[in-house]
Each structure stands twice: as C-alpha cells, then as structure tokens.
C-alpha cells in the first residue's frame, strides 16, 4: 500500500506544480498552520513539495490519510487525478475496515462461535474480495505510472540514441520509420512514441531488464544508470 501511495503522491506533485502559485501556497500554509504548529517549519515551506513533506512528518498526510491531497487538488482542475485520490481513499477504508473486522472477530471468537461462523465467513470473504480488487487496480496503476515516469525522463534525455535503443528492443524498422515521419524534427516526441510502443506492445515481464540492456548496448550508460535508479526508488 505504501508503494501505491508514493506513486500517487508523485503524480499529484507532478500535476500540481504547474498550478500552485505563491499566493495559493500561502493559503495552504495558513490552512495547515494549526496542524504544523511550528513557525520555523512554516518558514521553510517555499514550494508544494516541502509542504507535503512537512505534512507527512507531522502525520497529517500519510498512506492511510490522503485528505490533504484531495483538499489541495480542489484548487486546480484535474478530474483524473482527483478520481485516483478518491479511489485510493476508498481502498484505504476497505483495508482498514477489513483489519478492524479481523481484530473484532479474534476478540470474540469464543462468543457465539457457531452462530456467527457462516455470517463472518461470508462477510470476510466479501471484504477480502473487495480489498483484493482495489489492490490489483492500484498495482496496475502503479506499474503504468512507473512507466510514464521512465518515459518522461528518457524522452527528455535520449536524443538521437532512441533509434539504436529501440532496435535493441526489437522494434521493427518500419515502425521506426512511421514514428520518424509522424514527428519530423522532434526527437522528444519520436523517442517518447517509440519507447511507449515498446512498453505497451512489445514488453514482457522482463521489460525493465530489457530496457536497461538496450540502453547499455546503445552506449547510453548514463540513461541505463538513471533507469536503474528510478526503478529502485519505485
């Protein structure tokens, strides 16, 4: 769950940074002042990332409570992000409720055991199914977001090396030609499209290893190390 939260937080910061100006940031500082309860900490907040870190240190924001993210997201229009935050909130509530039910059941396991056995089994099964469903959904979202982060970093830096890289990833030459013709003179778009094609159509369970090897074969050790770092961080 923590990894899913981290990914959601990073997506939130990436989307919010273009919309939160100094005045809006000051509004947030005033709103959370009573919770932060430290003038020194408040004076350190110069951007949204720092605010989020301090909220986490004060346990106002955590993988169990993303209400601050939802509150801040109301200041800029991003329905997709707000939907993800709300879905995550539901996911956390389901997990918490499931844990509570399990604790309650253990405490009272010797009371009316026969009477409650069928009911508890049915309820726990339903809760587990719901929990697993949400966890699977967020795992898929987490993987997609991880790929998007890698795509963004690589397309910014890879330049003309994208052709050699995707050739080592077994992207056919005709696909490379199509991409070059689609985005003439735009290396960033070309590389983004080609790498995205690999990740969506030609990848397998070893897509990370294959990508790292392809970058090394294309003599882009700098990007190979960057990808390794990003994968480890996530």
Number of helices: 12
Let me know the number of strands. Answer: 0
The level of helicity is over 70%
Instruction: Report the β-strand fraction as a percent range.
Output: under 5%
What's the number of domains?
2
Shape: elongated
Distance between the amino and carboxyl termini: 12 Å
Written as H for each helix and E for each strand, in order along the chain, the element string is HHHHHHHHHHHH
**Largest sheet features:** none
SS content category: mainly alpha
Instruction: Give me the Rg, rounded.
Output: 23 Å
Rounded mean pLDDT score: 78
Uncertain parts? none
Domain Death: 147-231
Protein name: Death domain-containing protein
InterPro entries: DEATH-like_dom_sf, Death_dom
Pfam family, one: Death
Give an overview of the whole structure:
- It comes from Heterotrigona itama.
- InterPro entries: DEATH-like_dom_sf (IPR011029), Death_dom (IPR000488).
- One of its GO terms (biological process) is signal transduction.
- The chain has 234 residues and is mainly alpha-helical.
- The protein contains 12 helices and no strands.
- The protein has helices at 2-16, 22-36, 39-44, 48-57, 67-73, 79-107, 113-157, 162-168, 173-182, 187-202, 207-217, 221-233.
- Helix 1 (2-16) packs antiparallel against helix 6.
């Amino acid at each position: 769950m923590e990894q899913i939260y981290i990914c959601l937080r990073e997506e939130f910061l990436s989307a919010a940074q273009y919309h939160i100006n100094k005045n809006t940031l000051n509004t947030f500082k005033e709103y959370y002042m009573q919770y932060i309860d430290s003038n020194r900490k408040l004076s350190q907040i110069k951007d949204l990332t720092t605010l989020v870190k301090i909220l986490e240190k004060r346990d106002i924001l955590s993988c169990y409570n993303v209400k601050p993210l939802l509150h801040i997201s109301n200041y800029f229009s991003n329905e997709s992000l707000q939907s993800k935050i709300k879905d995550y909130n539901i996911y956390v509530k389901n997990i918490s409720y499931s844990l509570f039910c399990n604790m309650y059941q253990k405490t009272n396991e010797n009371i009316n055991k026969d009477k409650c056995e069928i009911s508890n089994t049915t309820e726990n099964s339903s809760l587990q199914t719901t929990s697993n469903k949400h966890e699977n959904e967020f795992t898929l979202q987490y993987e997609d977001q991880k790929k998007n982060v890698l795509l963004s970093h690589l397309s910014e830096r890879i330049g003309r090396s994208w052709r050699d890289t995707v050739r080592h990833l077994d992207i056919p030459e005709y696909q490379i030609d199509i991409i070059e013709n689609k985005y003439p003179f735009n290396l960033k778009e070309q590389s983004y499209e080609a790498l995205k094609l690999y990740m969506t159509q030609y990848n397998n369970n070893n897509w990370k290893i294959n990508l790292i090897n392809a970058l090394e074969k294309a003599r882009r050790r700098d990007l190979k190390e960057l990808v390794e770092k990003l994968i480890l961080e996530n």
